[in-house]
Structure formats: structure tokens, C-alpha cells
Amino acid sequence: xxxxxxxxxxxxxxxxxxxxxxxxxxxxxxxxxxxxxxxxxxxxxxxxxxxxxxxxxxxxxxxxxxxxxxxxxxxxxxxxxxxxxxxxxxxxxxxxxxxxxxxxxxxxxxxxxxxxxxxxxxxxxxxxxxxxxxxxxxxxxxxxxxxxxxxxxxxxxxxxxxxxxxxxxxxxxxxxxxxxxxxxxxxxxxxxxxxxxxxxxxxxxxxxxxxxxxxxxxxxxxxxxx
Amino acid sequence: xxxxxxxxxxxxxxxxxxxxxxxxxxxxxxxxxxxxxxxxxxxxxxxxxxxxxxxxxxxxxxxxxxxxxxxxxxxxxxxxxxxxxxxxxxxxxxxxxxxxxxxxxxxxxxxxxxxxxxxxxxxxxxxxxxxxxxxxxxxxxxxxxxxxxxxxxxxxxxxxxxxxxxxxxxxxxxxxxxxxxxxxxxxxxxxxxxxxxxxxxxxxxxxxxxxxxxxxxxxxxxxxxx
Lengths: 226, 226
Hints:
The structure is a homodimer.
Chain A: E1 2-6, E2 10-14, E3 20-24, E4 27-31, E5 34-35, E6 42-45, H1 49-66, E7 73-77, E8 82-85, E9 89-90, E10 95-102, H2 105-111, E11 120-129, E12 138-139, H3 141-146, H4 152-175, E13 179-189, E14 195-198, E15 206-210, E16 213-214, H5 217-224
Antiparallel strand pairs in A: 1-2, 2-3, 3-8, 4-5, 4-6, 7-8, 9-13, 10-11, 10-13, 11-12, 13-14, 13-15, 15-16
Family (chains A, B): Belongs to the SAICAR synthetase family.
Keywords (chains A, B): ATP-binding, Ligase, Nucleotide-binding, Purine biosynthesis
Domain SAICAR synthetase/ADE2 N-terminal (chains A, B): 4-214
């Protein structure tokens, strides 16, 4: 298998059958040794983080499959920390779609003049460009269209699907008494030009809280799958 | 008259008849002594900058009046560098609406991965919050609505009016062989809840170029009104 991409938290291999294998690593994003799902740098390495991320990803992607929400997921082998996925093309050089239920993180840093920390946001969706150099700038629907990254129709599908998926994750966390504050998702298009969820859904993609306390990704995995 | 506001480039006085008087100052925004219409700090003081800004503002507001585009403008006294305006309430704690015809400035800093410097943008509109502390963050239509700053209808009016006004400015500059790259406008609501253009339209609000050379605000005024 050929390694086609080395990511911050995952490497990607191309299989002979045309599908891809994602190798989850033990590196997590953060700054100065502190985990931060919004960070662009690998902040620390945690033994078992890869498998934990994959366990949660498998759990959520299978929940989405049950609800017939299209994703790139085929299957996962936890022992090897690998996931098999169908090919998908990304939008531009990559987008992140964020769904927010409470005002924290970069939202609060930008709009703190109008929002209190922790304020309920009711599934607010925003898109950011994957661009480490420019610190993943937020981008509007109009700019996405003008720059040829998304059509108006694609933006609408992306937004609706983001809320739909985030709501599933929120519900599943709620079963364990955990509250989802925000989550970032990535989308691509399959060979039929259908918009599908790609990448992963793990503790590293979201901020989850229990009784007002932030839950680290590894702990989240243990609470969710035990 | 009571001074009700001290601004970076203008002071505001309340008149006894309920209207307001804007006193244009010789301070212009910039950083390290270099003029930058996008800057949040007063960078330098230029003798005559206030009157020059007012001359251009008067010129453009009267053009808009001819076209029945609503603004807060009543009249101007160049010798005193003052402009009389009707009262208007601002949105939230103030917005700036930017119309871009070429990719420069903060647009390029954010979206340089997808746009070349100077690329034509065809009247692209974006809104930023007036918030010096948070460096005037751009904000989406969805976020403006969610935070109670603008309704969907108000956003649409704001966007349409911005393009309409920017197009007038662009046309007027073109008469003198000058090209408008971008312009920032401010809006408010009058006592009938009509959305009107407020603040000023001067060299300090826009980037104007002639034969590929940036034109300083004072020079722009001289070229436009001679």
C-alpha cells in the first residue's frame, strides 16, 4: 500500500481496490502540551489516543450509517488503529464545518462582544478554511461561492448535514449525561458527487462537557464505549 | 452643543434641533505613521485631512441623494469641517460593511490560499464587527442573526445597498480614471426604521488606485474635486 498523505493525527494509504486506509496515530492537536481540538499543531502524544479516536469514530460512523447519513466509512480494525474508507474529493484545499451549541473557543474570541462564555447557540454552523498558515480563517457562504470552493446548493447541503450529524453526536453524548459544546466536521464528494462526511468523529473533533467540566478525548471514549 | 462622542477621525455633537453635527478631524487611521484605511488606530495627523475627507463625503453623499439612496446627510460646511446629519441608531455596537472589487488587504490575508493579490472580486460584500479589541472580526449572516445584530431582511437590504453605493463611488472614480479596489461603509436606522448610510465616504474609507498606484486620501480628494 502506498502512503499518500501524512497528517497531523492520521496517515493515509491507498489500497489496491481503490479505497483508502486511515492509520490513526497517537498524536493529538494542541499547544504547549495542552490538548486543543481547535489547534493546528500536534501538541502532545498520548499512548492509545489513536485507538481511542478510532473507537469513537467507528461508534459514531455506525450510528450515522443506521440513520442513512452518507459517510466515507467502510469498516475499522481497532487493534491496528485503521479505518477503511471510500475515496472522496475535498472542497478546495479542505474545509472544516463547525457546529456550535455553546459559545466557547474561537467563536468567543471573535464575538465575545456579543456573547457570554458558554451561552447556548442552538446548532450554529460556520465554515473555516483548512489553512495553517492563515490560522484556519472563517469564511462566508458568499466568499466560498465567489472563490469557487462551494456552490450555493453545496453550501446548503453541507450546512443541513452538519446540523443533522452534530445532532446525532449530541444525542449520543446526552445518553451518558455529557453535553456537546461544539464539533468540527469535514466533508467531501464521492464518485457520484454526493456530499459525504469524511475524516473522523472523535474526542479530538469536539468539545464535550459533563457537569460543567471539560472531558478529555480519551476519557470521553471510555465513558462512551464501556 | 453637547459633544456626545469622541471618535478616531471625527467628534460628534448633538444639536438642539435633534440632529447631529460631525466634526471632521485631521487624524487618519494607520499604523506606524503609514495611512491604512483598515487600521484601528490613529496613525498620523495630516493638515487638511478633515476638510479633504468632508469634501469627498459631501461630494459622494450628494451623488447618492441625486439617486435617492437614503443617507443620514443633511449638509456640510467645508470651512468648519462639519457635517449635519439626521439621528440614526446603529446595529449592535456598530458594523462595517465592506465591498470589494479587488483582492487586497484583510481579504487577501485571510483567503490568500484561494486568491491572487489584486484579483477581481466583482463587488463582494462582507460584514465586520466594530471591535478594536478583537480586531474587527468578519461575521457571517447567520452569526449576525443569531446574535440579534441583524435580521435576515436587514442583512439583505444592507448587502444590496452596499453594492449599490459602492457602484456609485466606483463609477465616479472611474470618471477620473481611478479604480476602486474596496470600500467600507457604515449603516444605521433612521426614526422610521429605514436603513440608511451613515458616517462618511472619503479616502479614508476606501482603497483607490490609478495606473496600478495607490492614491493617498488627500490626493484622491484633489483629483476628484478640482
